[in-house]
Design a protein that fits this description.
The protein is an alpha/beta fold and 379 residues long. Bound molecules: S-adenosylmethionine. The site of S-adenosylmethionine has 28 residues, from helix 4, strand 12 and strand 15. This is 23S rRNA (Cytosine1962-C5)-methyltransferase.
Length: 379
């Protein structure tokens, strides 16, 4: 994860253990997750023409759920484009005003919000009196839950407020883990996805894994896609459904599925269901609704392997985001290229960054890195 300073607090939806230094919902470390992982000794399955001498990766089980071996892939690795820095300068109701001294000042609709940002090593660009006028400041008080971890210097604010991005309406939300119900750096992926869906000559099928409050699912549905949204947290699915109503997309074809992401994709693979776009934004650690353990470094290879199998013949993309400080973008880039061997196309990987835009939202400043990504596209 990019930010290590988060203090323990109330676990987010999907995370039953206490926080330990990851900064995203569903990212907290179990006491002995490793011990619970039951690595199967079944042999890996092979592409028909896979060379026999390739090392055989191990299968991964999540909480002793049905699993399968990793496929040994053959064929050329896809072409590559690195590094690709996807920059958001804000959209709709969001922009990054300023950052520095371990903090960031963001505009979310009517509110200016101050939150910790370990990446911001530089000095603040705007004067103190601007920062002091913030509407909400994340304090991170460890003896408080939920809203108590926020301070509202101007007037008491409610837990939610209306926001709009890329044409969809949803709730901003002051959560106990300093998140606000949306990860705006994802705008870069969502704009890309929206364009692809709108340009397609058929309704594209989109699978959104670890979908949280559903903003990506709503952007996809509003653009005309049939969407399957998967998240382990009932609470997050509830928020996503609220957002669906706010966006007046109640009749849009969205399946809301509260399930462990790995279990779900394993079943989809067996059923033969296929998708044109898959978004996967896994936390470093998470839990499924029945305690299934998700560990990024253990489970990502199998997750990508299955996602590849879930791609429709005319798929438009597979997009992975990772918020792990232990990895470089090359880790997920090379994993993606190995997974997509023989599939042609292009793998482009790099970072998602947000550019400061000043008080007016129009004055470009410094780039704030948020996460790593890797994206396979057919060409
Ligand atoms: C990092 S957020 C995803 C953010 C979202 N993609 C966005 O940009 O708005 C992580 C989400 O993963 C969910 N999660 C954690 N473990 C999970 C699991 N095993 N299966 C499915 N979802 C899980 C959490 O409930 C949380 O909503």
């Amino acid at each position: 994860m990019k930010n290590k300073e988060r203090r323990p607090g109330k676990p987010f939806p999907g995370a039953k253990a206490k926080g330990n230094g990851s900064d995203r919902p569903g990212s907290a470390k179990p006491a002995s997750a490793k011990g619970r992982d039951d690595r199967s000794s079944r042999p890996p399955r092979r592409d028909a023409d896979a060379p026999k001498s390739r090392p055989q990766p191990q299968a991964v089980d999540t909480a002793a759920e049905p699993s399968r071996p990793l496929t040994v892939r053959s064929g050329e690795r896809p072409a590559e484009r690195v590094p690709l820095i996807l920059e958001s300068t804000g959209a709709g109701d969001f922009h990054l005003i300023d950052s520095g001294e371990g903090l960031k000042l963001e505009q979310y609709g009517p509110y200016r919000i101050v939150r910790p940002e370990a990446q911001a090593l530089w000095p603040k660009a705007l004067p103190t009196h601007v920062w002091d006028k913030a509407d909400a400041v994340f304090t991170g008080d460890t003896d408080e839950d939920g809203m108590g971890r926020w301070r509202f210097p101007r007037e008491a604010l409610g837990e939610t407020w209306p926001l709009s991005l890329l044409g969809v309406d949803f709730h901003g939300r002051f959560t106990a883990f300093r998140h606000v119900g949306v990860f705006p750096e994802q705008i870069a992926h969502w704009s890309w996805m929206k364009e692809k869906i709108e340009a397609a000559d058929r309704p594209l099928k989109v699978l959104n894994l670890f979908g949280y409050t559903g903003v990506a699912s709503l952007v996809a549905a509003a653009a005309g896609a049939e969407v399957t949204h998967v998240d382990a947290s009932k609470k997050a699915i509830g928020w996503a459904r609220e957002n669906q109503s706010l966006s007046r997309l109640d009749k849009a074809p969205i399946r809301w599925i509260c399930e462990d992401a790995m279990k779900f994709i394993l079943r989809e693979e067996r059923r033969g269901n296929r998708y044109d776009i898959i978004l996967t934004d896994p936390p470093k650690f998470g839990r499924g609704p029945n305690g299934e353990v998700w560990q990024l470094f253990d489970h990502l290879p199998l997750m990508l392997d299955i996602c590849r199998e879930l791609l429709a013949p005319k798929a438009v993309g597979l997009v992975l985001t990772a918020y792990s400080i232990r990895a470089s973008f090359y880790s997920i880039h090379e994993l993606m290229r190995e997974t997509m061997r023989g599939k042609g196309g292009l793998v482009e990987s790099g970072e998602l960054v947000i550019r400061e835009a000043g008080l007016d939202g129009k004055t470009p400043g410094r780039a704030l890195s948020t996460s790593l990504f890797s994206r396979w596209v057919p060409k």
